[in-house]
Specification:
The chain is of the alpha+beta class and 403 residues long. The chain has seven helices and 14 strands.
């Protein structure tokens, strides 16, 4: 089977009942039962071959959700998919209606190394579920063997401008190589640092000064937002470096997850790579000696190819090019509807590239459960998810497959 579906599912804090994951936040047994029931239903509705999950505190509750989805799917198959004794069993619609159980062997879970199991201070990990299994053991990227030191430019002065250092990611990145119809696709699942401010608690203090809203510190809170943005962009670069390792071996790549930023944010553009200019022949050379010293037509071709071969494409953007209006959002808060969950893909899946080995047929968004957090109805999504789920409908091409 060369067609497959791949989805991103931020579940919003999956953990067992009566466990305080954040301060004063936990699920009663009844709330946990509602949430796991909703998740099983949502997973059954998605019916995706590959799913990247975010905000998973524990593996076992996720396995229980998958098992429940399988149980419901098998029961649905018995009721809706005709057996071979029925003359109409070959109808194409029944291939769409049939649910394929995941079983227990195709789940890779990446716990968060920052999670100490301390009640109220838990840290979530993530997971990848694959009906196709994996090639080798999925890789977790979180603790950096060599710290990421980002030197800052001195802007023409002689002084040391300093640098930003990142030794560990806020959440893991999970990398898995997945076999699909004789080919292998590398899938990355990520959950980058959120926009919530990162404040520092002084030694011996019970909390950070910026957290005291009755003594509101706008400059301090802005600095907290800056720290969060620096961390998110640093994490984006770590992911980008891992993506490039695969692309440099000409391996098809798909990247999904909660980017905590829109498609045009700097962090997202770090992950996807630069978009080449239409023509570098008009641009001054880097070593120009006079005003007419431009790149040649041959060098223009070389530059465009160097940039394009490592650039990722947004599934959402490819979809919107074929639709009549912007209909995609995965979060809603304070009246703002935006997409911070993304599926990116290498040019192996770009129909505009002559060497494409795959393509996307459709892009689905499951966001009917979202409620704007500024509305009174918002508590509903406390138990569901505050993210919509997205899914790309893909096909790997063979030499016989028509474009």
């Amino acid at each position: 089977m060369s067609r497959f579906t791949i989805a991103s599912f931020n579940v919003k804090n999956l953990i067992g009942p009566d466990q305080e994951y954040y301060k004063f936040q936990n699920y009663t047994p009844e709330e946990y039962a509602w949430k796991s029931d909703w998740m099983a239903d949502q997973l059954l509705t998605l019916d995706a071959d590959i799913v990247g999950f975010q905000e998973i505190f524990e593996e076992e509750p996720l396995r229980a959700v998958i098992a429940e989805a399988d149980k419901r799917g098998i029961e649905a198959n018995a009721a809706t998919v005709p057996d071979r004794s029925k003359r109409y069993h070959r109808k194409a619609i029944f291939r769409k209606l049939a649910y394929g159980p995941y079983g227990s062997g195709g789940l890779a879970f990446a716990p968060n190394v920052n999670d100490t199991d301390t009640p109220g201070q838990r840290r979530p990990g993530l997971a990848i579920l694959s009906r196709f299994g994996f090639v080798g053991t999925p890789e977790v990227i979180q603790e950096l063997e060599h710290p990421l030191d980002i030197p800052m430019s001195d802007l023409g002065g002689d002084e040391d401008a300093g640098y930003f250092t990142l030794r560990r990611l806020s959440r893991p990145i999970l990398k898995a190589r997945i076999p699909i119809n004789g080919q292998v696709v590398t899938v990355f699942n990520c959950h980058l640092k959120s926009k919530l401010g990162e404040f520092i608690t002084p030694a011996g203090a019970p909390f950070a000064p910026e957290a005291v809203l009755t003594a509101y510190d706008p400059a301090g809170r802005a600095l907290g937002a800056l720290r969060a943005a620096l961390r998110r962009m640093g994490e984006a670069w770590v992911l980008r470096r891992a993506i490039l390792d695969e692309l440099e071996q000409d391996r098809p790549v798909m990247v999904l997850g909660d980017f905590n930023d829109g498609e045009h944010a700097v962090s997202s553009e770090i992950i996807s790579g630069e978009v080449p200019f239409r023509n570098y022949s008009w641009m001054l050379r880097h070593d120009a000696k006079h005003g007419s010293d431009r790149y040649s037509s041959k060098e223009n071709t070389q530059i465009v190819e160097a940039i394009d071969k490592v650039r990722l494409r947004a599934a959402e953007k490819i979809f919107l090019k074929r639709s009549l209006r912007d209909v995609v959002y995965t979060t809603a808060f304070g009246g703002v509807h935006e997409s911070i969950d993304q599926i990116y893909m290498s040019r192996h899946f770009d129909p505009e590239w002559s060497g494409a080995t795959g393509k996307m047929h459709y892009f689905s968004v499951f966001n009917d459960h979202l409620t704007d957090g500024s509305h009174p109805e918002a508590p509903y999504n406390k138990l569901a998810s505050d993210h919509g789920q997205i899914m790309a409908h893909m096909e790997l091409l063979t030499p016989e497959t028509p474009e």
